[in-house]
TrEMBL record:
Protein name, entry field: Short-chain dehydrogenase
Domain Ketoreductase: 6-165
Record organism: Ketobacter alkanivorans
One Pfam short name: adh_short
Cellular component, GO annotation: membrane
Keywords: Oxidoreductase
Length: 264
């Protein structure tokens, strides 16, 4: 099966890394199912990519803070006879306030978006990938997953979960032709910091710490196609991540795989 016969589901596709993934995969001939809250922006992007690359491009407006959203997305794909061969779990945000002073519904929505929805979408697309013997999943973690815990930073714990979960899934699924990669970017030029209200602080960081979304996407896609379970894009980010962990990621993965008592 070639790329022209495959479809990628991308969440958070209306801007930033999600939109960059949409443009990259469209240029490679993949059909697309784009998901985000902003329907108008999704439709504009879908029209642009369909015209430029001649690929089928569907949109589904959904708020992944809603626990019903993952099932609704997959139900739509099934009704539309769309087979999901690639999943890019990109949608995300970061809380701005201290944990104890943040209302529980706000924290619950953050967990739903970046933990539960990510995990559920992986689970829901797997039967089709297993039946076809091929699949690619990229879960957006962060270089923050390698950092020591920080006060009030639920984001760090969430991204650590995504990193560990992705490696565990890759160990289980790779023999079935399904690769799972945790993509762990550092500071990336996007709307993320505008949405979070941290643009002023972000602008004070040196240029060497920043990457363009296109560079992150290209390195992440090469990693998942090569079967690499973890991708830290960019030389500077690799150095930073390596300095924050006592064991290299590749060795952690090897030991986790070999010492797993449940491995079949």
């Amino acid at each position: 099966m070639t790329a022209s016969n495959r479809t990628a589901l991308i969440t958070g596709a209306s801007a930033g890394i999600g939109a960059a993934f949409a443009r990259y995969l469209a240029s490679e001939g993949y059909g697309l199912l784009l998901v985000a809250r902003r329907a108008e922006r999704l439709q504009q992007l879908a029209a642009e990519l369909s015209e430029q690359h001649g690929i089928p491009c569907e949109v589904f407006a959904a708020d992944l803070n809603d626990p019903a959203a993952p099932a609704a997305i997959i139900d739509y794909a099934q009704r539309s006879n769309i087979h999901i061969d690639v999943l890019i779990n990109n949608a995300g945000l970061s809380g701005k306030d201290a944990f104890a002073s943040t209302p529980w519904p706000t924290l619950a929505a953050e967990i739903q978006l970046m933990v539960t929805a990510v995990t559920e979408l992986c689970h829901r697309v797997l039967p089709g990938m297993q039946a076809r013997g091929w699949g690619r999943i990229i879960n957006l973690s962060s270089i923050a997953a390698f950092a020591p815990p920080g006060a009030s930073l639920l984001y760090t714990g969430i991204k650590s979960y995504v990193l560990g979960m992705s490696q565990s899934l890759d160990m289980e699924l790779k023999p079935q032709g399904i690769h799972v990669t945790a993509l762990c970017p550092g500071f990336t030029h996007s709307e993320f910091h505008d949405t979070m209200g941290t643009r002023d602080q972000a602008n004070q960081l040196p240029d060497i710490l920043w990457q363009d979304a296109d560079a992150v996407v290209e390195e992440g896609w090469r990693a998942v196609m090569k079967g690499k379970p973890v991708c830290v894009p960019g030389t500077v980010n690799k150095i930073i991540a390596g300095s924050m962990r006592p064991l290299p990621v590749s060795l952690q993965y090897y030991l986790g795989d070999r010492m797993n008592p449940f491995k079949q």
